Amino acid sequence: MRDMSRRNLLGAGLGAAAAVGIAGCGLTGNDKEGRSGPGKDESGGGGASPSQKPEGRPIGDGSTSDTGKQPHQPEKPVPLEPGQTPPQFVIFSWDGAGEVGNGLFPRFLELAKNHDAAMTFFLSGIYLLPEGKKNLYKPPNNRTGASDIGYLTDGHVKETLKYVRQAWLDGHEIGTHFNGHFCAGHGSVEHWTSAQWQSEIDQAVKFVTEWKTNTGWQDEDPLPFDYRKELVGGRTPCLLGQDNLLPTAKKLGWRYDASSPGGRQMWPVKRKGIWDLPLQQVPFPGHSFEVLSMDYNMLANQSKNSTKGMPSRYPGWKKQATEAYLAGFQRAYDTNRAPFYIGNHFEQWNGGIYMDAVEAALKGMAGKKDVRLVSFKQFVDWLDVQDPKVLEKLRGLEVGQKPAGGWNTFLKATA
Predict the structure, then answer these.
(1) Domain assignment present for 44
(2) What is the domain count for the chain?
(3) C-alpha to C-alpha distance for 142 and 47, rounded to whole angstroms
(4) Are 130 and 150 in contact (CB under 8 A)?
């Protein structure tokens, strides 16, 4: 089966499969050789461990707090030197980022820690809103309180808060996946105006920064960051609606958007002043066509959108998904060094094979020379200090194209 359109592939299928209870799923620097991570800066006191409670200045109702510089961040990025080989950036990201008792959030936090990786967690705002307060959510073009993904139980909201705290303290980025994940009909995000995106973002931020007021849990620890400053990018539901989102994102000072579908493995450009960082088409073993670099798209091409396919096929599908990610990585690593973006959900589709596949893929990438496993925010930090002429030259390399004469010759000519 060929890779499908974004509406079919990431529309009704993802919206339904991401809902709680569906198919048992939840929700959905100069590196030394052998060092996989972004070059963590351990100077100046390092960072707090997840078990510590960092001191901070409460913000608003105390749901969030300013605890200072985020721990475990890369050293300040510097421009590439003439003739220097670019790093191979890999960004693992997670849509929704809610914990519903399946242990996937802590599993991947532990994996990241073990491999010196930073990731981006696109938090859905309503995952911090109790279902009993759902009427506080007024989604554009939909009834009050509506959502195409489920609200979490109180216990799962607390678990989500726990692991979002830990994620930030571990050095990961907290972005946004907005709120209700509407992908079909008149209420789809595809039809939202820039003003409606502003309303959706304002509400997502409000749910994250006022969860104590909405839950009444005054004794719970605050999130250790100022979300209004932390938030610099997101990914839209079903990869829809980017055109009208971007003017609002620009006005808010966002630095990137990860909502484009079907991107090619090339160096990124800016759209309307925002770095456009799309999911990418990667080789799909056993087929002549390529597949989008996200777990659901693997599923859609294997079990025809069913999250409970034939168990006898799980081992082969897991191997195919793992090899697809690794093939995309290797193609970039061996040629144009284009950054590689992988999208995921905390899900257990087809017996959890996609979670196993992404873990195996990360392990296969980590530790290689020049590889940096970073968040989107860390990546755009690096982009923003590069010489525009160097980036322009990098963008001239096609998918799978090696630099003429090698990197030393190719980029030295730009100096």
Answers:
(1) no
(2) 1
(3) 42
(4) no
> Which H or E run contains 66?
strand 64-66
pLDDT at residue 191 above 90? yes
Round to whole Å and give the CA distance between 154 and 99: 11
Residue 183 has a CB neighbour count (10 Å cut-off) of 26
Which residues are CB-neighbours of 45 under 8 A, at least 6 positions away?
A: none
pLDDT of residue 415: 58
Would residue 45 count as lying in a domain? no
Domain containing 294 equals: 6-28+80-367+388-412
Nearest to 190 by CA among 142, 238, 230, 147: 238
What are phi and psi for residue 183, nearest 5 degrees? Answer: -130, 5
SS3 367: coil
The full length of the chain comes to 415
Residue pair 37/210 in contact (Cβ under 8 Å)? The answer is no
pLDDT in tens, 292-308: 999 999 999 999 989 99
H helix runs in 21-153, sequence order: 104-114
* Residue type (1 letter), 181: H
Give the pair of three-digit tokens for residue 185.
């009909």
DSSP string, 293-339: SBHHHHHHHHSTT-SS--GGGHHHHHHHHHHHHHHHHHHHHHTT---
Write out the DSSP string of 249-260: HHHTT--EE---
Residue-wise pLDDT for 91-102, tens only, equals 999 999 999 999
- Encode pLDDT of 49-61 as tens digits: 444 677 899 999 9
Is the predicted pLDDT of residue 44 greater than 80, yes or no? no
Tell whether 96 is covered by a domain. Answer: yes
- The rounded percent of the chain whose pLDDT value lies above 90 is 85
What confidence tens digit (pLDDT) does each residue in 260-294 have? 988 999 999 999 999 999 999 999 999 999 999 99
Lookup: tokens for 182: 């509407």
Residue 152 lies in a domain: yes
